[in-house]
Design brief:
The structure holds 2 protein chains of 2 kinds. By secondary structure, chain A is mostly helical. Chain A has a single domain (8-83), classed as F1FO ATP Synthase. In chain A, 80% of the residues lie in helices and 0% in strands. Chain A has helices spanning 8-48, 53-83, 88-91. In chain A, helix 1 (8-48) packs antiparallel against helix 2 (53-83). The radius of gyration of chain A is 21 Å and the shape is rod-shaped. Chain B is mainly α. Chain B has one domain (7-255). Helix content of chain B is 70%, strand content 3%. Chain B has a two-stranded antiparallel ribbon. In chain B, a hairpin with a 2-residue loop joins strand 1 and strand 2 (54-57). Chain B is globular, with a radius of gyration of 21 Å. In chain B, 29% of the residues are buried. Classes of the chains: A mainly alpha, B mainly alpha.
Chain lengths: 95, 259
């Protein structure tokens, strides 16, 4: 089969879907480890100094929100890849 | 409308909710009548009706329905404030006090009167916008990227407003170039980046939640999505809290003097 006659549009769509799965796994596991460390150190700090609990609590929530936004960026990119890929109009012949 | 606990008022409000939901569903119903159940059609905003060249999406309709409900509710409760509060007033006072404590802790001021309207409105609006998708027939406004972007833009413009109001124009502009003028591009970049971060955090969280619920709904419509919907109440309220918290932190960064 010639190189130009391969069904590139189908290959492209399959590739984007295949890439999205590992992509979101990596993009969620790494922030999850970060959130684990934050929650762990927050718990340790509260156990050591319970009277500072309120202040530590809000800072821990703030850090968790910051870390969560990393996972959300990956989710947004994966959703764009699957549902609204901007490159697809150059590959697929829309006629 | 003398009493809050008047059952007639509650019935009227409930009937209003159902009627508005039905109207909204009818307006946006033409697009969702596909044979195959589609995840994108369940969540994505569709055009409800057109006014001349403008296309009014279902997000706008649902946001106005929600604003109407919030306005009527606030009006009815606000006319009937009592010294010894009923259950509804008690709950609202608890929420307002929680927001005031948040501002006191994060902004670092004792007087919360100028910050409470912005932060409280954002928290209430986002909290109810995340919950309104649970009413059958209404779509969540937050999975449309325009709603979180509008909220983040409000924060983007209110931060310099509060900074200038509390510290004066020169003092506020000085904090961009402290401790060295090389910090200026970094500060400007961080102001723009955190606007997008606020937008995508709210948008992505609620969109992911809604996608999971509609996939479960397509796979198994009976009882299976219910635990996920219960979890979405928690996530929606948590996102509203986090948005208010981050707003307070950003305002606090502009209001506090650097030592």
């Amino acid at each position: 089969m010639e190189w130009n006659n391969l069904p590139w549009d189908k290959i492209f769509i399959v590739l984007t879907v295949l890439v999205s799965g590992p992509g979101i796994i990596v993009g969620i596991v790494v922030p999850a480890i970060g959130q684990m460390i934050v929650a762990m150190s927050g718990l340790k700090a509260i156990a050591r100094q319970p009277e500072a609990g309120d202040r530590i609590n809000s800072i821990v929530l703030l850090s968790l929100a910051m870390l969560e936004s990393l996972a959300i960026y990956v989710l947004a990119i994966v959703l764009i890849l699957i549902f609204a890929n901007p490159m697809i109009k150059y590959i697929v012949n829309l006629e | 409308m003398r009493k809050i606990n008047n059952p007639l008022t509650l019935i009227i409000l409930l009937a209003l909710v159902i009627a508005l939901a039905v109207v909204s569903n009818l307006l946006s119903g033409t697009a969702s009548e596909a044979e195959e159940p589609d995840v994108a059609a369940e969540i994505a905003p569709c055009a409800a009706f057109t006014v001349g060249p403008l296309e009014i999406t279902s997000t706008v309709v649902n946001t106005w329905v929600m604003m109407l409900l919030l306005g009527i509710g606030a009006f009815v409760i606000g006319r009937n404030l009592k010294l010894r509060p009923g259950p509804v007033q008690n709950m609202l006072e608890w929420i307002i006090e929680a927001i005031e404590n948040l501002i006191r802790e994060m902004v670092g001021v004792e007087d919360t009167t100028i910050f409470l309207p912005v932060v409280g409105t954002l928290a209430f609006f986002i909290g109810f916008a995340n919950l309104v998708g649970l009413i059958p027939g209404l779509k969540c406004p937050t999975p449309d990227i325009n709603t979180p972007l509008a909220m983040a833009l409000v924060v983007f413009f209110s931060v310099p407003y509060f900074g200038i109001r509390t510290r004066g124009l020169l003092n506020y502009l000085k904090h961009y170039v402290e401790p060295i003028f090389l910090m200026l591009p970094i500060e400007i970049a961080s102001e723009i980046a955190r606007t997008f971060s606020l937008t995508f955090r709210l948008f992505g969280n609620i969109l992911g939640e809604e996608i999971i619920i509609s996939i479960l709904f397509i796979v198994m419509p009976l009882f299976v999505p219910v635990p996920m919907m219960l979890f979405s109440i928690f996530t929606g309220l948590l996102q509203a809290y986090i948005f208010a918290l981050l707003t307070c932190v950003y305002i606090g960064g502009a209001v506090k003097a650097h030592h």
